Amino acid sequence: MSGVVRQDGPMVLPRAFALLRLLAASPRGLSLSDIATRLDVPKSSLSSTLKALADQGYLARERALYSLGPQSFALASAILAGKTISQIARPSLEKAMEESGESVLLATLDPDGAHLTYVEIAESPNPVRYAVPVGTRRPLYATACGKLFLAERSEQARRAYYETTALEKKSDATVTDPEVLEGQLQVLRESGVSITFGEYSADAAGFAAPIRGAGGALAAALVIAAPITRGRREAERFARLSVAAAGEISGILGGASTEGREKPRA
């Protein structure tokens, strides 16, 4: 029996999955050198993996750039078929809850266009925490998630919303002036995260980020919700975690990266 042990055999599947994840996050494609550098794999051993995946249609190659092929998208569609966004998002919500220590909620836009509904929650185990039942509805103007939905609309659509919606105070901090709201929406477009302190519930803070589906359309919103004292103390970290979790779900849904994406119309 030879004393030579092959080192690449057991690594083929992990390497292939790492490669697919990398290309899923790089829709414009990557060269062999780029892939080898990012995965820290010798080009010589990577070439056979690339060829095998390309031959099966899981990768496409154009002008020396590799990207996901039609079989990758077909596989993703088959996996996601029949799953609700709540089921898809649940693992990411749980992960964000564990990392933040706070409750993490998933919100979708209601058919009336004026409210959102929390359709899933990973509730914090902390004795003092933010929690609402699944199915709870909230107005868009007074919530971190709601402002994300508003920010996606054209100026004309937002003006129509302001004219037809009673912008009532929910707490002392609720913003009811459309011009002030417009300023907040511009800030969140630039930052990619919506932050509120006590605007609906006086003792709660929210850190929301967009979840995008195919084509970059806003599919849902994820919010880390915390007691306001902890929210102020951990604002930067909670904002960062919400963006990361929402981005993870967007990646599963085939959503476009927010990097380099055209801003919504002001």
Automatic annotation (TrEMBL):
One Pfam family, short name: HTH_IclR
Protein's UniProt keywords contain GTP-binding: no
Cross-referenced PROSITE patterns: HTH_ICLR (PS51077), ICLR_ED (PS51078)
UniProt domain IclR-ED: residue ranges: 71-255
Gene3D superfamilies attached to this UniProt entry: 3.30.450.40, Winged helix-like DNA-binding domain superfamily/Winged helix DNA-binding domain
Annotated HTH iclR-type domain residues: 10-70
GO MF: DNA binding; DNA-binding transcription factor activity
Coiled-coil stretches: none
GO biological process per UniProt: negative regulation of DNA-templated transcription
InterPro entries noted in UniProt: GAF-like_dom_sf, HTH_MetabolicPath_Reg, Tscrpt_reg_IclR_C, Tscrpt_reg_IclR_N, WH-like_DNA-bd_sf, WH_DNA-bd_sf
Keywords on record: DNA-binding, Transcription, Transcription regulation
Top-level lineage group: Bacteria
Name of the protein in its database record: IclR family transcriptional regulator
Protein source organism: Pikeienuella piscinae
